[in-house]
Structure formats: structure tokens, C-alpha cells
Amino acid sequence: MAERLAVRTAPRAAPARTAAVSALKELGQLDIAIYRTIAETPTETLDGPMRRLSDVADKSKLWLGLAAAMAAVGGRTGRRAAVTGLVAVGLDSALVNIGFKFAARRTRPDRDAAGVPADRRVPMPHSASFPSGHSASAFAFATSVAQVQPVAAAPLLLLASAVGYSRVHTGVHYPGDVVIGTLIGATVGQLVGSRLPRSAAGRRWAVLRPEKASQ
């Protein structure tokens, strides 16, 4: 029976597989074309700020600094938001660096061939290009914090978007790396932001009212 099913589905599967391969190839070509277009477009005003933003977001320094500021001046809500954001960044970093980058192993862009101006460049990482870890961490932090402090959603998401773009502008990532990194980070941030504050609230309630928690 399994053999008959395989024979019946094989003619249908082959065209679908061919179409999927062709679509992925075209997306890859589009990815490279957008990367080259950005590299070739003169943007002297943006080059310095994008380079500095990319640098400050390296190793999550930007998010650590923002978390420290929120914890220092934001009261109880600020501290909860800071912890939530850092937990999201930690989980996201492990998922991206241990999981996705190791599995994908996409080669970094060739900045020389694309003509990325020297004034834009930051050090080229040695890790795989796909997905963008900077973008993933940025959106993990922004999305998770936004659920604890909604007022911070717009500025944090705007900042995260700028960090993601800076990685393409400086030539170390293709646009597709940033798009997928953004989706991964936003998903992790959504999960952590929706779960962690509730879990913390539940633990506090259990400490205050143990007889209720045990029922």
C-alpha cells in the first residue's frame, strides 16, 4: 500500500519540489540584488550613525544598557521589563547561535565585490550570516519589553528596526538574514513577554497566600 501511495504522489511531489527550489533560488537572487543596491547607493549622512549603532548593539551592549536604565529609574515595572527583556535576549541568542546559524551556515556577504564603502564597515563576524543575531536580539528585547511596558513599544521597535537595517548597511548581512532574524526575535520576545511576567506574578501570589496556591 505504501509503495502504491509513493507511486501516486511522486509525480505530484516532483513539480512542487522543483517550484520550491526555483522560488528559493529567486529569493536568494533578490536578496543579493537588494544588498548590492544598498551598497551602491551613496548615503554619507547615514554611514557614520549606522556604523556606530551596529557597533553599540554588538554583544547586546545596547540592550544591557537599556535594561540597566529601566531597572534604575522605572520602578517595579521597569525592573520587571528589564528582566523580561534580558531573559528574551538570552534565550534568543542561544536559539540563533546554537541552532539556526549552525544549521544554515550561510557565508557572509562579499563586501568588496558588492562595493560597500569603507566608511560604512564594521568588523566582519566569523559566524554564519543566517540569520542576523543582532536583529533577533533587538526584536526579542523590544517585543518582550513592550508587553510589560506598552508605552516603550514604539521607540524600542523603531530602534530594533534601525539596528537590523544597520547590519545590511554596514555590509555584514544580507536583507534576508535580517528579515528572518527579526521574525525569530519577535517570536521569542512574544513568548517570553507573555509568559514570564505571569509566572513571576504567580510566584509572588504563592508566597503571599500559600494556602490559596495549594488548593
Distance between the termini: 53 Å
Catalogue the unreliable spans: 1-7, 201-215
Mean pLDDT: 87
Fraction of helical residues: over 70%
Fraction in beta strands: under 5%
The major pleated sheet works out as: none
Helix/strand/pairing class, anyone?
Answer: mainly alpha
Question: Which CATH C-level class is it?
Answer: Mainly Alpha
Order of helices and strands: HHHHHHHHH
Number of strands: 0
What is the global morphology?
globular
How many domain units? 1
Q: How many helix segments?
A: 9
Rg, please?
22 Å
What is the second-level CATH architecture? Orthogonal Bundle
CATH topology: Vanadium-containing Chloroperoxidase, domain 2
Descriptive overview:
By secondary structure, this protein is mainly α. The protein has a single domain (2-213), classed as Vanadium-containing Chloroperoxidase, domain 2. Helix content is 79%, strand content 0%. It has 9 helices and no strands. It has helices at 2-40, 44-56, 61-73, 75-104, 111-114, 133-148, 153-169, 175-208, 210-213. Helix 3 (61-73) packs antiparallel against helix 4 (75-104) and helix 6 packs parallel to helix 8. The N and C termini lie far apart (53 Å). Mean pLDDT is 87; it is low at 1-7 and 201-215.
